[in-house]
């Protein structure tokens, strides 16, 4: 088996794309699934409601609070994992971070309550985005709540998923000869990918590995239905483009690292179980 190689194509705090070579499909897919289900992040799990005479029920506001992405990078080192907090009491400082929400409107005041109005006791666990709306308050209304956030996994609930996108696809490759391509073929490509049509014309003929962040469905349709000669689209099943987009709770790179650790732990557990069966 060839050695695995990873080439970083794009990276920011919220987004990462990489070209992966020499890795089997099951491993790449395991990484994708682990990014959704096995990377812990903080999310509000319990809400104590002291006062609420707004238009929304307590349960609706609590649900909205639960879906707010919370900063979690430092929390991974400070708080115990979910499996260690199964029997913990609510408010245990090793398991829970506390955020308070207290807003009141005057006699002639209307006000939107935003995620930034939450006051965290731990500054390392706070809403990622301060401008997410929670509830619109009418005059002379009051909202007082205390929320408890803990680490959790996406397999428990979607609010603990650190990614909005975790995907992989085979690397698309185009082999082409512009002189043999019909006008109908080029028009089809140009309508969906003007940048690609321009590149094909400038090169004339050759082979292109499409490393751009693109949906190749329209290109596949053009190649099959409009480009019977002059252009061939194929997919390299030995190379994958992996894309991770974070909710903001963790940097994209940290999500990949934690997902790989989760896959490694599962493999170790499986090997341990098999070794136990062999001894029996």
In short:
The protein has 280 residues and is an alpha+beta fold.
CATH first level of the largest domain: Mainly Beta
Q: How many distinct beta strands?
A: 11
Enumerate the spans where pLDDT stays under 50 for 5 or more consecutive residues.
none
Question: Can you say what the CATH homologous superfamily of the largest domain is?
Answer: DNA-directed RNA polymerase, insert domain
How many structural domains in the coordinates? 2
At the third CATH level, what is the topology name of the largest domain?
RNA Polymerase Alpha Subunit, Chain A, domain 2
Count of alpha/pi helices: 7
- Largest sheet, order of strands side by side? 1-2-11-9-10
What is the overall shape? flat
Can you offer a commentary on this structure?
This protein has two domains: 5-37 and 165-244, RNA polymerase, RBP11-like subunit (Gyrase A, domain 2), CATH 3.30.1360; 41-160, Beta Complex (RNA Polymerase Alpha Subunit, Chain A, domain 2), CATH 2.170.120.12. By secondary structure, it is an alpha+beta fold. The protein starts with a strand and ends with a helix. Strand 1 and strand 2 form a beta hairpin. The strands form three sheets. It has a five-stranded antiparallel beta sheet with strand order 1-2-11-9-10, sandwiched between helices. The mean pLDDT is 94. The chain has helices at residues 25-37, 58-66, 75-78, 183-192, 194-203, 217-225, 252-279; strands spanning 5-11, 15-21, 41-52, 97-104, 111-114, 119-120, 133-137, 142-152, 163-177, 205-209, 231-246. The protein is flat and about 75 Å long.
């Amino acid at each position: 088996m060839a050695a695995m190689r990873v080439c970083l194509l794009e990276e920011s705090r919220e987004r990462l794309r990489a070209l992966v070579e020499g890795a089997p499909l099951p491993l790449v897919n395991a990484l994708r699934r682990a990014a959704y289900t096995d990377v812990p992040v903080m999310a509000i799990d319990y809400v104590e409601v002291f006062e609420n005479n707004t238009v929304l029920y307590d349960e609706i506001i609590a649900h909205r609070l639960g879906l707010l992405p919370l900063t979690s990078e430092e929390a991974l080192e400070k708080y115990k994992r979910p499996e260690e907090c199964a029997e913990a009491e609510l408010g245990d400082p090793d398991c829970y971070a506390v955020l308070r929400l207290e807003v009141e409107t005057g006699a002639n005041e209307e006000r939107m309550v935003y995620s930034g109005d939450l006051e965290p006791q731990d500054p390392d666990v706070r809403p990622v985005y301060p401008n997410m709306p929670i509830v619109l308050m009418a005059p002379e209304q009051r909202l007082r709540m205390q929320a408890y956030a803990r680490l959790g996994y996406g397999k428990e609930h979607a609010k603990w998923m650190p990614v909005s996108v975790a995907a992989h696809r085979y690397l698309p490759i185009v082999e082409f000869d512009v002189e043999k391509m019909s006008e109908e073929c080029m028009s089809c490509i140009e309508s969906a990918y003007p940048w690609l049509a321009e590149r094909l014309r400038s090169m004339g003929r050759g082979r292109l590995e499409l490393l751009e962040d693109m949906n190749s469905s329209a290109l596949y349709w053009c190649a099959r239905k409009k480009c019977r000669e002059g252009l061939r689209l194929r997919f390299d099943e030995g190379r994958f483009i992996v894309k991770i987009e974070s909710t903001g709770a963790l940097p994209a790179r940290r999500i990949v690292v934690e997902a790989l650790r989760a896959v490694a732990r599962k493999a170790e557990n499986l090997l341990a179980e098999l070794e136990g069966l062999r001894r029996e």
